[in-house]
């Protein structure tokens, strides 16, 4: 990767705006759709390749502050060039007052690289724009510049590849040399791009929201906070809006970072989809984004519709301080395939899946269940079984566009009478006390609390996964045992399953 400082700058000519290229982004978008449709899914997965649709590219380009002088732009993982095209279109339309633009675009896929060169060359023919297109591996090239301490770029616009990287892989080793430990290519791309920017430079990237929480992304979060200020974040209400052509069920966030910036308030915007027709913008103090004293430095993303859990009284406990533990169901059915049974039989005990969970109770067995209802209880399987009793349970995976991310229920041992042990499948989290069941009122109270809008809002602020991990439930704040038990007694007194409004009202009254 050559040093951008060595590049020949091309200055603005007397060309009028009318002579500038038009509709090149739309042309690039048509090619993106054609290439994506003709590319095997296996190839996309190998490269972590999901190209940016034109509406999202235009929106991302609009998030840069106005600027002048010479722009040095980085587009790493450029695809067919949609993001750079959108950036240049904004310049053509008067959104920037640059004297010239030098762009470095990286695309390792030769099928995309050729289109990228053609699209950027059309701009270069009619604008004060010099493109440099590289087929190099961006991680390897950027690590070399990072180690050399180069800070070159004034602007960066990225849709990096979404791909996990294993310990010992070449990318993992290379990034370790630069001081970054990470588990996904997208965090590596953003981290290294940020490291190569000049002070005051702006980076805009669309990335999975998964970096906001979880211990594996803590080094990446620390890397960002050490080098930049978060200026804005944008969320799509629909998980698959950003890359709907590729059918990606992934919650994405567009993030704007200022290299060396002072961290103050953060703008948070939302839209239903990539038309951005119902854009809503709110502003929040950084203490609402990263809670003071949070050693994990989880990134919360509040919106105007969400209840702010920090403003709720009584949420002062963690699962640990309540003397409880969250665990994932121990039974992994494909590893226990010789022990699982479709229906109960002699020598088996109940095996519970999310499909057995009905409100605050159970339905077991289920005759038409796609999985299993029972597991053989013998010396080999017994270590994976738990004592029968009252447990709050939470589905690990929420269905597409489910209203609540957290869906909690209760194991009712009365529905499993006659069994001293039961099996919990791996798609269920459960709460226990030193590996023993809880009282009925505490178990049901926890389920009620976890089903509140407040708990769901708190969870959504730092979790963008389609799954709820045990670690996420451990990170949340809870009411006291007394409040939880009062909620349990409340739901026990009902003759039916409460609706959302009833649950929220009961919770608000309990914590007053």
TrEMBL record:
<comment type="similarity">
    <text>Belongs to the N(4)/N(6)-methyltransferase family.</text>
</comment>
<dbReference type="Pfam" id="PF07669">
    <property type="entry name" value="Eco57I"/>
</dbReference>
<dbReference type="GO" id="GO:0032259">
    <property type="term" value="P:methylation"/>
</dbReference>
<dbReference type="InterPro" id="IPR029063">
    <property type="entry name" value="SAM-dependent_MTases_sf"/>
</dbReference>
<keyword id="KW-0949">S-adenosyl-L-methionine</keyword>
<dbReference type="InterPro" id="IPR050953">
    <property type="entry name" value="N4_N6_ade-DNA_methylase"/>
</dbReference>
<keyword id="KW-0808">Transferase</keyword>
<feature type="domain" description="Type II methyltransferase M.TaqI-like">
    <location>
        <begin position="137"/>
        <end position="240"/>
    </location>
</feature>
<protein>
    <recommendedName>
        <fullName>site-specific DNA-methyltransferase (adenine-specific)</fullName>
        <ecNumber>2.1.1.72</ecNumber>
    </recommendedName>
</protein>
<keyword id="KW-0489">Methyltransferase</keyword>
<dbReference type="GO" id="GO:0008168">
    <property type="term" value="F:methyltransferase activity"/>
</dbReference>
<dbReference type="InterPro" id="IPR011639">
    <property type="entry name" value="MethylTrfase_TaqI-like_dom"/>
</dbReference>
